[in-house]
Write a structure and sequence with these properties.
27% strand; Phenylalanyl-tRNA Synthetase, Chain B, domain 3; alpha+beta; 130 residues
């Protein structure tokens, strides 16, 4: 069973933290037992994130960004859009940008990984964003 945990926080000065447009990667740490990613909080629907299969409309939106997203692929998404393939970096336009003001951090919980590791992943990501 997979589950999503998320946390949204304000991020006042992204440029002071070295984020340069779409080139930025989500904060990650190899010592964690659960990976974490960051999305621009303003593109995430207020209903929150979940795991679902990609739709034809997700494929069409991604192809406009030069990304191949097959319908039926597992994605991290909200009610309105896919934001990332499961266990992959955010899709173009969904990750951190120089104008990001709010950040939505998320991690994927997997059966067998204790909740403490999921919570730690979000905590470490939040600390990196400082």
């Amino acid at each position: 069973m997979l589950s999503i945990r998320e946390r949204t926080c304000e991020w006042a000065t992204p440029n002071d933290r070295g984020i340069r447009g779409e080139e930025s990667q989500s904060p990650r740490s190899e010592r964690r037992k659960a990976p974490g990613w960051a999305l621009d909080g303003d593109v995430v629907d207020a209903g929150g994130l979940g795991i679902r299969t990609a739709t034809d409309s997700d494929r069409d939106a991604a192809s406009g960004q030069g990304v191949i997203l097959e319908p039926g692929s597992l994605v991290i998404a909200d009610r309105t859009a896919a934001h990332a393939l499961l266990f992959d970096q955010p899709l173009p336009g969904r990750g951190l940008r120089s104008r990001t003001k709010r950040v939505t951090l998320f991690t994927v919980g997997v059966d067998g990984v204790p909740d403490i590791h999921i919570d730690e992943a979000l905590w470490i990501c939040a600390e990196l964003l400082g």
